[in-house]
Amino acid sequence: MRRHNSRSRIALVPLAVLAVAATAAPMLPVWLGSDDAPRAVAGPAPAAHALVVDLRDDATEADIRDLETRYGVDLEFNSVHAEDDNLLRADVEGQDAGRLLERLRTDARVEVAEPELRLTLPERPEDPLRGAGATSPGEVASSTSSDARPRFTPNDPRYREQWNLRMVGAEAAWERSRGKGVVVAVIDTGVAAKDSDRGKQARDFGQTHFTRGYDFVNDDDDPYDDHGHGTHVSGTIAESTDNREGVAGLAFEATIQPIKVLSAMGSGTSTDIADAIRFAADNGAGVINLSLGSPHPSDVIHSAVKYARRKGVVIVCAAGNGFEEGVIYPAAFPECIAVSSVGPSGDLATYSSWGKEVALAAPGGDMLASGKEADGILQNTVYPVEQGGKGDDYYHFQGTSMASPHVAAAAALVMAQGVRDPARVRDLLERGTTPKAPKKKYGAGILSASKSTALAAGTTSRRSDKRLLFGVLAALILFLPRRIPFGLRLAVVAAVWAGYFGPDHLAATVGANSAWNLVTFSALIPFLLFWEMESRVGSKIVAGLALGVGIGLVWNLLTGALPFTATAFGDRALPWTVANAAASFVIAAAAWRRSRTA
């Protein structure tokens, strides 16, 4: 017999919602965000010579032809890969681009319409920028047995010159992870990944793993690097390592996805970059590195970034080489991890841009401060003679372009350990940093791949311990209360499982910092079911669900794995977790007590 009428239940439901909202209130500012627009480099917007038009996914070919007729514009898919995303561009030389944009933006079939921007490599710091000759056979270091090493040390002869890898604790990180199984998309000038009609494979990439990429500049399947930048960036991530040649890469067992969006002159279009981001997200990339940018935001790139983020991709970007405050785009977008640069001293590099969007700093070299070539980042690349290089060789580069791939590689190391949620990956990268102030210049601090992989190892081990604890709980429920039918005991175990593991499964789908987690990582669902399921059987199931939620929240408290990441919310998630854990235990006790008297 129900002892609570509908009116009492209707009155109590809003009270439950208010209770949940009250403990969530301190976290709301994070979801609402700041009203301050990112402060990027100042400058007038470029004139529009072409438009980029991103249509709704359900727009048809007939819709495209109708748009062309109605607005007097010739729309073409940006590439063969753009057809699935309805990403088109139009040349508008001689037309009133402003008026055309106004009209397109009012059409319900158009998600984004904007002038096509040109993005470039971050402005090049003044010389000295590059140098260092090739390794001669006489420089090859003798190797020692790995058994004699205190930890893995690669036998690459010029590894000792990579101060940057020592700064981030590469050797300790390699004991835990080397990036195996993670695809890192390098969206850049291409990569000298293999021999082709356009050039030879870079000499120290013979053992590097590659997957299919694309050249959005030439619209073909050969994203060869005719500039040198993209190959150098890829080398920091996954140059062949422990192969008695050249230098090492930080995540050398990761797989590089080479994507060319920048020409031999180092520039490309916002349309190609947006197309490339979506291509990477649709073709297995777990991490995207974008060592490029513009002082001007692009909605079509931002839309692509959000698309990739929803698909579980970690997006790492160079903050810019502006010598002052002002983070470039796409680094300034909140979905991206903006990286500033430090030199061997650990101080902000002379050229590095900085600002409130910076998430963390990483070694990018600072030859300007010291005048020493050795203070740059040394990797193998194909630097064309016509651009002042010596072809396939080893070069010291500097820039936030070089800092960003250190973070992308560290993200791959963490993801290879089983942490796949981009919010959790970012949290581990930021919590693992070596703290340094001020925040606007260094973000959370300087990258430590060693500490971040150690935190990731702790996360994965806690998962095993959590499963073990559930096994103990399930055994107690199944075998102790023998007066309860075994089928009902199984149902209670299932309810405990749902409350204990269910929130984690949802968070893995929507992301650790999603507002949806306010429902599952809370006492709200058990509370509502408590007032609806008043029978003896129903009350026992509710008790099991509430117990699972409560124990799961206590586990999060004791292990430091709060439902919402520390880097996003700080301590603000603590009262939420405590309040809902306590409420869940109260509901569990009340429901169990009622099940014995119903």
Can you characterise this structure?
With 598 residues, this protein is α/β, with parallel strands linked by helices. Helices cover 41% and strands 13% of the residues. Strands 6, 7, 8, 9, 11, 12, 13 and 14 form an eight-stranded parallel sheet that branches. A four-stranded antiparallel sheet has the order 2-3-1-4, sandwiched between helices. The chain is globular.
The assigned structural class equals alpha/beta
Residue share in helix: 40-55%
Task: Please mark out the parts with pLDDT under 50 across 5 or more consecutive residues, or reply none.
Answer: 1-8, 35-42, 127-149
Gyration radius from CA atoms, angstroms: 27 Å
CATH H-level homologous superfamily name of the largest domain: Peptidase S8/S53 domain
Short description:
The chain is an alpha/beta fold and 598 residues long.
Task: Note the topology.
Blueprint: H1 6-24, H2 28-32, E1 50-55, H3 61-71, E2 76-77, E3 87-91, H4 97-105, E4 110-115, E5 118-120, H5 163-167, H6 170-174, E6 183-188, E7 209-210, E8 214-215, H7 229-238, E9 255-260, E10 267-269, H8 270-282, E11 287-290, H9 299-310, E12 314-318, E13 337-342, E14 358-363, H10 367-370, E15 377-383, E16 391-397, H11 400-415, H12 422-431, H13 439-442, H14 449-479, H15 486-510, H16 517-520, H17 524-532, H18 536-559, H19 566-569, H20 573-595
Parallel strand pairs: 6-9, 6-11, 7-9, 8-9, 11-12, 12-13, 13-14
Antiparallel strand pairs: 1-3, 1-4, 2-3, 5-10, 15-16
Helix pairs in contact: 1-17, 7-11, 8-9, 11-12, 11-14, 12-14, 14-15, 15-18, 17-18, 17-20, 18-20
